[in-house]
Design a protein that fits this description.
Length: 263
C-alpha cells in the first residue's frame, strides 16, 4: 500500500507533465465538445468568410463564431448518436455535397494550372468588339403570333395608326408598356432574322412585310442609330475572364468524357 503523501506527489508530477500537452491542444483548438475538438483554424476560416462580406474582425465576432461552431458540433453529435448518418436520404445528400466539394477543388486546380493570360483577355475583348460592330440601333417592335396579325398591323400603320399605340397591345409585355421600345442595342443582341431586317431599315421606317423569327412574327420600326461605344477593357475584364474560365472548364469536361468508358 503506497503512502498517501507519495501518491499525491506523483499525481502532481503527472499533472505537471501533461500541462504542456494540454496547453498545445488548447492553442490548436477553439473548443472541445464531448472530447471532439473544434480546430481554431475552423474559426479562422469562418471569420475570414465573414470579413470578406464586410464584417469587421472583432473579438465579439470570433466569440459568436465559436458559439456557432459549438452549436453545430452538438447538433452533429446528436444526429450521429441517433443513427441519422446511416439514413439513405442523408447519405445521398452527403454524397452530393462530397461531389460538389471535389468538383470545385478540381476546377480550382485546373484553372490554377491553366491561368487566363492578359493577351487572351485582350484578344477576346477585340473579338467581341468586332462582332458587335460599330453601330447601335434603337428599334421598336410589335410581336404577334401569326403572319395575318402582322399584316393587319402593317395595314393599320399604312392608314396612319401610331406604332406606339399598336405596340401596347403586343404579346411582348416587357416592351408593350413603352410602345414597343427595345432601347439601344447592337444587332447581335437579337436573333438573326430580326437583326437582318432591322439594319436594312432607314430611320423612321418600319418593315412592310412580317418578319418571322422563332418567337413569332414581328413588325419592326427603326427609330435611330448611333456609333457604338464599347466599355473600356478594364471595366469588362472580370466578365471576360469568367467566360474564358467557363470555356476552360467545358474543355476539361469534354476531354475527360472523350477518355472515359461510358456505358
Amino acid at each position: 500500500m503506497s503512502h498517501p503523501s507519495l501518491s499525491l506527489r506523483l499525481a502532481k508530477i503527472a499533472a505537471a507533465a501533461l500541462l504542456p500537452i494540454a496547453s498545445v491542444a488548447f492553442a490548436q483548438n477553439a473548443a472541445v465538445v464531448n472530447n471532439k475538438p473544434i480546430p481554431k483554424q475552423r474559426v479562422d476560416d469562418f471569420v475570414a468568410a465573414l470579413v470578406a462580406q464586410g464584417r469587421p474582425d472583432t473579438p465579439e465576432l470570433r466569440a459568436a463564431v465559436r458559439d456557432e461552431l459549438i452549436a453545430r458540433e452538438l447538433f452533429v453529435q446528436e444526429a450521429e448518436k441517433k443513427g441519422l448518418a446511416r439514413n439513405a436520404e442523408v447519405q445521398r445528400q452527403l454524397d452530393n455535397l462530397r461531389q460538389d466539394v471535389l468538383i470545385r477543388a478540381l476546377i480550382r486546380d485546373h484553372l490554377k494550372a491553366n491561368p487566363v493570360k492578359d493577351e487572351e483577355i485582350k484578344a477576346e475583348y477585340d473579338k467581341v468588339r468586332k462582332q458587335a460592330g460599330d453601330k447601335e440601333y434603337r428599334a421598336r417592335h410589335i410581336p404577334v403570333e401569326s403572319e395575318d396579325e402582322a399584316k393587319q398591323i402593317i395595314d393599320q400603320l399604312k392608314k396612319g395608326a401610331k406604332f406606339e399605340d399598336l405596340a401596347k397591345k403586343s404579346k411582348d409585355t416587357g416592351s408593350a408598356q413603352s410602345g414597343g421600345d427595345l432601347d439601344w442595342n447592337t444587332p447581335q443582341t437579337f436573333v438573326k432574322e430580326f437583326s437582318e431586317a432591322m439594319v436594312k431599315l432607314d430611320k423612321g421606317k418600319y418593315t412592310e412585310t412580317p418578319v418571322k423569327t422563332q418567337f413569332g412574327y414581328h413588325v419592326i420600326r427603326l427609330d435611330d442609330t448611333r456609333e457604338a461605344k464599347a466599355p473600356p477593357l478594364e471595366e469588362v475584364r472580370p466578365q471576360i475572364q469568367q467566360e474564358i474560365e467557363r470555356r476552360r472548364v467545358q474543355e476539361l469536361q469534354q476531354s475527360l468524357r472523350a477518355k472515359a468508358k461510358i456505358q
